[in-house]
Specification:
By secondary structure, this protein is an alpha/beta fold. It has 14 helices and 15 strands.
Length: 403
C-alpha cells in the first residue's frame, strides 16, 4: 500500500527538533518504505497537546499533498482495518448521487459530545443527540458551568455535536482542506501552544486531550459555508462494521477492530480472522437524508436485537426534538446538512451463519490457545526482517545496536 496503489499508508511522526539518532532512523525508514509524514510538531511534545497538534499538522499536509484524491483519513495504531472493505465503502460513498453535498464528507463511528473551548475539555456525552442534549444541559449554562467549576474560567460548553471516533476518521479531501484553513483551527492551536498546562473542571491537571472530539467540535464551532455530509459507520451499539470493546469480539462483517489492549498477538488473530473464511464482506447501501430529522434518533426506535440497531431516519422524524432544529449542527450554513447511514443491500448474498457469531465471535480463546504459535510466528517475522537487511541497514547507518 504505497505510491500508485488505491490506498497509501503514512505514519505521522512528530519530527521538529528530533535528535540526530532518531533522524537517521527516520531517513532509513523513508528510503526503504516511503511511509513517513513528518509533522512540524516538537518530537517530545506531551500527550496533552501532541495529538491535537499532530492531527492539525496532518490535515494541512494531507490537504496539500493529496488534493487530487477523494478521501484522506486518520487512524489510530490500535486498530486493524480490512482495507478491501474500506475501498468498497468509499466507492459507495463517492458514488452516492442524490446528496448534493458529497464534496464535504465526514465519516466514522458516530456519537455525540459537548466541548469546553476555554479549557479544551469534553463533557456531556450521548449516543444520540437527545441523550447528549440531556447530559449537557448543565454545562451549556454558563452560570451553572462556572459554579460547578473548581476554578475560574471554565466557561460554558458548546454542543452537542456528532464526532467520529479517533480509531478511524475519514474526511473528503475538500473538507480536510476547509478545516486546515479554518481560522478556528489556528486560534485553537495558538491558545494550546501558549498554555503551559490545562486544568480540568475538577481542578486537576489535564493529562491528555481527545483529538477526535476536538475535531468534531471544530467542525461544529466553525462550519464551512457549504453543508456537510455525515456518514455513520456505526451508531449506538451497532457492531456490524466496527468492533470496539476491551475484549476481542468481531462480527463477520466488521471492517475495523479497535484492539484497545494493543497486544500484537491480538492483531495477528484479527488478521487471520478478517482474511480467512470467517469474514464476510457485504455490500452496503447509503441512505441519506437532509436536515435536522436525519440527525435525531430516539431511543424508542432503537432495535436492540436487530442490526443495524438504529432507527431509520424517516421514523425518527416523528420524535424530532425542537432543540436540534435550533442547533448549529443543522441550521444556518448547515441547514441542509446530510446524515447518512449504511444499510445492508437487500439483494446481497447473506453470510454463512455460524452459531458463535450471533453476537460476534469471541476471538480471545484463539489468542490463548494459539499464543505460543503466534509468538513463534512473530520471532520468524523478526528473523526475516533481519535477514532482509532492514535492521542491519538502520544499525549500520545510524550506529545503533540491534538484536
Amino acid at each position: 500500500m504505497g505510491r500508485g496503489r488505491p490506498v497509501r499508508v503514512l505514519f505521522v511522526v512528530r519530527a521538529q527538533g528530533i535528535p540526530s539518532s532518531f533522524e537517521c532512523q527516520l531517513a532509513v525508514e523513508q528510503r526503504q518504505n516511503d511511509d513517513i509524514a513528518r509533522a512540524a510538531v516538537p518530537w517530545n511534545e506531551s500527550r496533552l497537546r501532541g495529538p491535537v497538534l499532530s492531527l492539525a499538522a496532518w490535515l494541512e499536509f494531507a490537504a496539500k499533498e493529496f488534493h487530487a484524491t477523494p478521501f484522506v483519513a486518520k487512524m489510530d495504531d490500535d486498530a486493524y482495518l480490512h482495507v478491501a472493505d474500506l475501498l468498497v465503502l468509499l466507492r459507495t460513498a463517492q458514488a452516492k448521487g442524490p446528496s448534493p453535498h458529497a464534496d464535504l464528507t465526514y465519516m466514522g463511528s458516530m456519537s455525540w459530545f459537548h466541548w469546553h473551548p476555554a479549557i479544551f475539555e469534553r463533557s456531556g456525552f450521548g449516543y444520540t443527540f437527545d441523550e447528549a442534549w440531556r447530559m449537557g444541559r448543565s454545562c451549556r449554562n454558563v452560570t451553572v458551568a462556572e459554579r460547578r467549576c473548581r476554578h475560574a474560567g471554565c466557561g460554558a460548553c458548546v454542543g452537542p455535536f456528532p464526532f467520529a471516533a479517533g480509531f478511524l476518521v475519514i474526511l473528503s479531501t475538500p473538507l480536510a482542506a476547509a478545516l486546515a484553513r479554518s481560522p478556528g483551527l489556528q486560534s485553537d492551536l495558538t491558545a494550546l501552544r501558549a498554555a503551559p498546562q490545562l486544568v480540568s473542571r475538577q481542578g486537576r491537571k489535564q493529562g491528555k486531550l481527545m483529538e477526535d472530539i476536538w475535531l468534531g467540535s471544530l467542525l461544529y464551532r466553525f462550519p464551512p459555508p457549504q453543508p456537510v455530509r455525515y456518514v455513520a459507520l456505526s451508531e449506538v451499539y451497532d457492531p456490524s462494521l466496527i468492533s470496539d470493546n476491551w475484549g476481542l469480539r468481531a462480527r463477520q462483517t466488521a471492517l475495523l477492530a479497535h484492539i484497545r489492549g494493543k497486544q500484537l498477538e491480538r492483531f495477528l488473530v484479527m488478521h487471520d480472522f478478517m482474511t480467512g473464511e470467517d469474514h464476510c464482506s457485504l455490500p452496503h447501501l447509503l441512505e441519506c437524508e437532509q436536515g435536522c430529522g436525519a440527525f435525531d434518533v430516539a431511543h424508542t426506535e432503537i432495535h436492540l436485537f436487530r442490526s443495524p440497531r438504529v432507527a431509520l431516519p424517516r421514523l425518527a422524524k416523528r420524535w424530532l426534538s425542537p432543540d436540534i432544529e435550533r442547533s448549529p449542527v443543522c441550521s444556518a450554513t448547515q441547514r441542509n446538512a446530510t446524515f447518512c447511514r449504511l444499510r445492508p443491500s437487500p439483494n446481497q448474498t447473506r453470510c454463512r451463519k455460524r452459531p458463535q457469531i450471533i453476537l460476534g465471535v469471541n476471538l480471545l480463546s484463539r489468542v490463548q490457545n494459539a499464543k505460543a504459535v503466534l509468538l513463534k510466528r512473530l520471532a520468524q517475522r523478526k528473523e526475516r526482517v533481519l535477514q532482509a537487511g532492514t535492521a542491519r541497514l538502520v544499525a549500520s547507518a545510524c550506529q545503533t545496536p540491534y538484536n
